[in-house]
UniProtKB/TrEMBL annotation:
<dbReference type="Pfam" id="PF12728">
    <property type="entry name" value="HTH_17"/>
</dbReference>
<feature type="domain" description="GAF">
    <location>
        <begin position="211"/>
        <end position="353"/>
    </location>
</feature>
<dbReference type="InterPro" id="IPR041657">
    <property type="entry name" value="HTH_17"/>
</dbReference>
<dbReference type="InterPro" id="IPR003018">
    <property type="entry name" value="GAF"/>
</dbReference>
<dbReference type="InterPro" id="IPR009061">
    <property type="entry name" value="DNA-bd_dom_put_sf"/>
</dbReference>
<protein>
    <recommendedName>
        <fullName>GAF domain-containing protein</fullName>
    </recommendedName>
</protein>
<dbReference type="InterPro" id="IPR010093">
    <property type="entry name" value="SinI_DNA-bd"/>
</dbReference>
<dbReference type="InterPro" id="IPR029016">
    <property type="entry name" value="GAF-like_dom_sf"/>
</dbReference>
<dbReference type="Pfam" id="PF01590">
    <property type="entry name" value="GAF"/>
</dbReference>
Length: 368
């Protein structure tokens, strides 16, 4: 074994294209096998890092926080309400089993939930096919309202009585599947059960501390104009910082994370708004509310990456107390979806660059 085959934490971070802190989270959380030297320093084999980059590790691709739900229209509305208030995951809801199959194949979801409360034959057939599909080893398969397990099933399907039980099962499994432990409790703001996983996903985007980009600046400008707000921001939330990828009407580049109203926006999938921050006990003592610049109104919607992690938010802020109208909320949600698309494009571009570098590295010996 040569020294070149053993990596330090800093070497690991450079090879993965993430910060040293993220590399530490990956190593300490067990996503990357490691050992300690007699001096107490973590070391990693290069082959394990290359396997992680190339998707050959036991976890394969980055863990998904998306759930595909197949349900009739009336039950679909119920699932939408339940999952919109859930911090740990994003839900895609389908009525047609055939459409759901395409989504399952392309998303590689954390879980697939099939509602059988009405005894629909097509959904029952879909559940049987999912149960027997070895390519879905990465996904949990849930059945809600099914009277009994299949006599010829593989035992993979988890049977639950109600949508509420299904939601709790998904939340627990996401916390258990997270490759990195969440930060310690006692923080001055709420976090999801899989916050550690969200932090890794956010840093893997490679957007932190990057230069301004016109695509993002257009969105904050449009949000400020559409909602008639003096300030609009696209935020990314790290363990300690709220960093602004784009900002309109504000000179600050970042704030401590403890100041971030967006801590609450990333915990749900709709729009989070506060009419008067000074009258809300969660924010009344916030330095940005109690002192300068004396913010009063906030509204934000989460920005989701390819795997369904809420990496940040698109928000608007005002110095005056105000109410967010239904059309304004829908506009903000649509703009946050556009910001999510831009974030996903950046992630795809980075994956392509990484793939190209791997190809060049593999071909290099043949040219020497």
């Amino acid at each position: 074994m040569t020294d070149r085959e053993i990596l330090t934490t800093a070497d690991t971070a450079k090879l993965l294209g993430v910060s040293v802190r993220t590399a530490q989270l990956l190593i300490e959380g067990g996503s990357v096998p490691s050992w300690k030297t007699p001096g107490g320093h973590r070391r990693v084999y290069r082959s394990d890092i290359e396997a992680l980059i190339e998707g050959r590790s036991s976890g394969g691709a980055s863990p998904s926080a998306t759930v595909v739900i197949v349900a009739p229209p009336d039950r679909g509305a119920l699932y939408r309400r339940l999952f919109e208030g859930t911090a740990e995951c994003a839900a895609e809801i389908h009525e047609d089993p055939h459409t759901a199959l395409f989504a399952i194949a392309s998303i590689r979801p954390h879980a697939v939930l099939v509602d059988l409360a009405d005894g629909n034959i097509e959904r029952l057939t879909l559940l049987r096919s999912l149960d027997r599909n070895p390519a879905l080893g990465h996904s949990r398969i849930l059945a809600v309202g099914s009277p009994a397990p299949f006599a010829d099933g593989t035992g993979r399907v988890i049977y639950l009585d109600t949508p509420d039980y299904a939601l709790e099962s998904v939340r627990r499994s996401l916390a258990e599947a997270a490759p990195v432990a969440s930060p310690a409790t006692g923080l001055p703001f709420p976090i999801a059960l899989n916050e550690g996983q969200r932090l890794v996903a956010m840093e893997r985007l490679g957007l932190l501390d990057t230069a301004p980009e016109e695509a993002f600046d257009r969105l904050t400008w449009l949000a400020a104009r559409t909602l008639e707000a003096p300030i609009s921001l696209i935020t990314l939330l790290t363990p300690t910082r709220q960093w602004f990828k784009s900002r309109f009407g504000l000179e600050l580049q970042e704030t401590p994370r403890s100041w971030a109203f967006c801590n609450y926006s990333i915990l749900q999938k709709g729009v989070f708004s506060v009419e008067d921050l000074a009258c809300d006990p969660r924010f009344a003592d916030n330095p940005a509310v109690a002192g300068d610049p004396s913010f009063r109104f906030y509204a934000g919607a989460p920005i989701l990456d390819n795997e369904g992690h809420a990496v940040g938010s698109l928000c608007v802020i005002d110095f005056e107390r105000r109410t967010l109208g239904a059309q304004q909320a829908e506009a903000l949600r649509a703009l946050a979806a556009m910001a999510s698309t831009e974030v996903r494009l950046r992630a795809t571009e980075r994956q392509l660059r990484d793939s190209l570098r791997r190809t060049e590295r593999q071909q290099a010996p043949s040219r020497t």
